[in-house]
Design a protein that fits this description.
This protein has a 4-stranded antiparallel sheet with strand order 2-3-7-6, with no helix packed on it. 45% of the residues lie in helices and 13% in strands. Strand 8 and strand 9 form a beta hairpin. Helix 1 packs parallel to helix 4 and helix 5 packs antiparallel against helix 6. Bound molecules: flavin-adenine dinucleotide (FAD). The site of flavin-adenine dinucleotide (FAD) has 17 residues, from strand 1 and helix 13. Flavin-adenine dinucleotide binds next to strand 1 and helix 13.
């Protein structure tokens, strides 16, 4: 099969490439590439403002709310260029998660209040779904919200709440009715993160990052106007949210970029004087990942081409997540293997931006951050639905088991 983009799409791709080349400050791109977890709030905000200024603040939103109106293929080309330029994959919880829910289910007043500052990079969001005993089995969540007058009083605990410490707002699943079937008693509530009674406690992750958190809610008072949609419909909205970004969970752009870096590392690193890439054992491993990644890319393109008249792609999306997240781990492990002893150094968030002089000989530019990335990608087969859960979905939807 020969795969070609139209001259217009090709021109679009070059326009995007030129924009990033001319406007993304190299030190910021370097920080994003090194992969500090989480990236600093200043960087996230500056990047979102840069994209918003160009009209690309939320490519996937509808035009009337500041989206781009791009075809799925253009969004795909854009994302590939974004990653290749070491740009930031946007502020997920806001732009990709809660925004689609708001667009579909929130009141006009809520949309007008929350969407513009999200787009402009003035307010960031966090996702409060998981609890200590409700991860895969989310419907068993226990955080409760009791209605008193025109407020909800919220009590409970969330965990693994990514970026909670730098968010102004959180969207939470809370139990508003304990007397109905578990899925029916859940509501979708927007809570300001500085509300009295709400405490964020960071969890240090394996690579030393501080992106994950526990969130404790102790008599947190939330105005009823912060409820999205109908009470008791939170489960439906959450399912809509989780299924929204259908191909993103393949981590395609990340995987392609990191595979290229693995190849660069293997071209530089030597074992007994021989370049690693010339050693058959390593070259075979690299080729294996490359073939699997190509298969994933074609699957993503197939899904994108069906976006407009899609029927039920849920099983396919689970398969993409299954393969894409496992590939993330294989690609980053390959980098660490290729780096050998170089992989042992731990890098601070701002280190490695400009490695000069003798240091540059010792630490090639590909080194900083690779081990941390390999460690943090251990989580990619857990969040967004673990491997076992994805397999259960495929078994049920694709094979009727
Ligand atoms: C880095 C990271 C970031 C995250 N960010 C967020 C966030 O921002 N907001 C948020 O709300 N949550 C977040 N999560 C939480 C994430 O959604 C949960 O970790 C995930 O859903 C799994 O839940 P659990 O950790 O409770 O594991 P469990 O559900 O307890 O699962 C433990 C093991 O049992 C297996 N298992 C469970 N049920 C079944 C079954 N029915 N059949 C077969 N096997 C099963 C699982 O696959 C897993 O291997 C994040 C998690 C991580 C690791």
């Amino acid at each position: 099969m020969r795969f070609e983009f139209s001259p217009e799409d090709e021109a679009f791709r070059l326009e995007v490439r030129a924009f990033f080349r001319d406007h993304l400050p190299p030190p910021m791109a370097r920080r994003f590439y090194i992969g500090a977890h989480p990236p600093s709030r200043e960087d996230v905000r500056a990047f979102q403002k840069l994209m918003h200024g160009r009209g690309w603040g939320a490519p996937h939103w509808p035009l009337e709310w500041g989206g781009t109106g791009w075809s799925p293929l253009r969004k795909h080309l854009f994302m590939q260029e974004l990653y290749d330029a070491d740009g930031l994959d946007y502020s997920w919880q806001g732009l990709h998660m809660v925004a689609p829910v708001m667009l579909a289910f929130a009141s006009e007043a809520q949309k007008r209040r929350f969407l513009p500052p999200m787009l402009a990079g003035d307010e960031f969001w966090t996702q409060g779904f998981s609890e200590p005993n409700a991860g895969s089995d989310l419907a068993s969540l226990k955080t409760r919200a009791e209605r008193v007058g025109d407020e909800y009083i919220v009590n409970g605990q969330k965990i693994w709440t990514s970026d909670a410490s730098m968010a102004e707002w959180g969207f939470f699943l809370v139990r508003t009715d304990a007397d109905v079937k578990p899925q029916r008693g859940i509501s979708f509530l927007l809570i300001r993160m500085d509300t009295p009674g709400l405490t964020v406690r960071p969890i240090v992750s394996i690579e030393g990052g501080l992106g994950l958190n526990e969130v404790f809610l102790d008599n947190v008072r939330v105005p009823c106007e912060n409820l999205v949609g109908e009470p008791g419909m939170g489960w439906t909205y959450a399912k809509y949210l989780l299924g929204k970004e259908r191909t993103a969970s393949a981590f395609l752009y990340f995987n392609k970029r990191e595979l290229e870096k693995a190849r660069e590392i293997a071209t530089v690193q030597r074992v007994n004087g021989q370049r690693l890439i010339e050693r058959p054992e390593f070259a075979r491993k690299l080729a294996r990942v490359e073939v699997d990644l190509l298969a994933l890319e074609y699957s993503v393109l197939r899904v994108l081409s069906q976006e407009k008249n899609r029927h039920d792609l849920d099983a396919v999306v689970s398969a993409l997540k299954l393969r894409g997240s496992a590939l993330q781990q294989r690609v980053t492990e390959l980098q660490v293997e290729a780096l050998g002893l170089h992989a042992l150094r731990q890098w601070g968030h701002d280190e490695g931006e400009a490695i000069e002089g003798g240091e540059a000989l010792r630490w090639p530019p590909q080194v900083p951050g690779r081990t941390a990335q390999a460690l943090i990608t251990r989580a990619s087969t857990i969040y967004g639905g673990s491997q076992e859960i994805q397999k259960n979905i495929i078994a049920k939807l694709a094979f009727g088991l």
